[in-house]
Design a protein that fits this description.
The strands form 2 sheets. Strands 3, 4, 5, 6, 7, 8, 9 and 10 form an 8-stranded mixed β-sheet that branches. The protein has a two-stranded antiparallel ribbon with strand order 1-2. By secondary structure, the chain is an alpha+beta fold. It contains 12 helices and 10 strands. Helices cover 48% and strands 19% of the residues. The radius of gyration is 26 Å and the shape is flat. It has a domain at 248-344. The protein starts with 5 loop residues before the first strand and ends with a helix.
């Protein structure tokens, strides 16, 4: 099955956002990976060998697991395969080298919140980060390990009881600015030891005042940060999803190509178009021109600006044809150079 798996580094602030770097993930070459592991002297379990023919996906997963565990002791294995985590690390390394004075925080979803990736950001790149955990992840308490889901449930009961008795909540109301709006959360924030992650700043968020909605769990390597700052940074993860969704309207998934280099060129062109539309939203003269000529009011979405620029192109075409007819040209004479240009392209 041919499919695209795109790893993107995205920039976001309260005014704008746009893709910065991207790479396509390529599936592992199982045969090359096996040969590389054997060449490095890493033993493979004989009991797993039958998976080559009976369960190829299990065999691939087993080899990738061995490769992942042995990288620290065998650095040469790094060259055998670029996982999505490694691609993300490489792109962030590229970003830091290009902007050494900038220490912008990095935020990512649950899939990328893995111990090795977090250590790379903290120890190698010295960047602040905000990651995302699931309810199944564990926090190490004095009473022993506990899932975040159970921990949040217990805090919720203590919170409701504290409100009833003293009026002092455990989950504090927090308001954050995001893209010109104000958003309300109810947050627990403290420093804890998380299983496999070590000491982290943990934030547990609810959107409902009675904590009736599902909790979300964020961690950060900045142990003095508060819930509002961590929540605000994590909120800026969402524009990546918007880009992948709205980018499809610009043709992000509309190609019939099998060559990875050709696909990357296509994605790059879409990213440029998307970024130009983002930049256009801050062009006051262009905004006034479009709203005046088209008699519309533009909102802040890329889709709105795409439709407006397409409509403006149609408007300009109409003006061009009208001017030609007013000057006494025939419709054939007006349209002929346009038709020839389209056919040549």
């Amino acid at each position: 099955m041919w499919a695209r798996n795109l790893v993107t580094v995205h920039y976001s602030d309260d005014l704008t956002d746009y893709p910065v770097l991207f790479r396509l993930w390529k599936p592992v070459d199982v045969e090359r990976l096996e040969q590389g592991l054997r060449a490095a002297g890493i033993p493979l379990k004989a009991s797993k060998e039958e998976w080559k023919t009976t369960a190829p996906r299990k065999w691939r997963g087993y080899l990738v697991g061995v490769w992942r565990r042995c990288q620290k002791s065998h650095p040469q294995l790094r060259e055998l395969y670029d996982s999505k985590l490694i691609i993300a690390q490489d792109m962030l390394q590229q970003w830091v080298e290009a902007h050494p004075a900038w220490k912008l925080p990095v935020t990512f979803d649950n899939w990328y919140t893995q111990p090795a990736f977090c250590r790379f950001l903290d120890q190698t790149l010295d960047l602040p980060y905000v990651g995302t955990l699931s309810g199944e992840d564990e926090v190490n308490l004095r009473t022993g390990p506990e899932t975040l889901q159970d921990f949040a449930g217990r805090l919720k009961q203590e919170h409701l009881e504290a409100l009833r008795r003293t009026g002092r909540p455990i989950f504090q109301p927090v308001t954050i600015p995001y893209k010109g709006k104000q958003e309300q959360y109810y947050s627990y924030c403290n420093t804890h030891r998380l299983h496999n992650f070590g000491k982290q700043r943990l934030v547990i968020n609810h959107r409902q005042a009675d904590l009736s909605d599902n909790a979300t769990f964020f961690i950060s390597n900045r142990l003095v940060w508060q819930a509002a700052g961590i929540t605000r940074i994590r909120r800026h993860r969402w524009p990546v999803e918007v880009y992948h969704e709205e980018g499809k309207a610009e043709g992000l998934d509309q190609y019939q190509l099998r060559d990875f280099e050709a696909i990357e060129r296509h994605v790059a062109l879409v990213a440029v178009v998307y970024s130009l539309l983002r930049a256009a939203q801050h062009d006051r003269d262009l905004r006034e021109l479009l709203q005046r000529q088209l008699k519309v009011r533009l909102d802040g979405s890329v889709a709105s600006w795409r439709r407006a620029t397409q409509a403006h192109a149609l408007w300009c075409l109409g003006l061009f044809i009208s001017a030609g007819l007013t000057q006494g040209q025939t419709l054939q004479a007006v349209m002929t150079p346009l038709i020839q240009a389209v056919c040549r392209s």
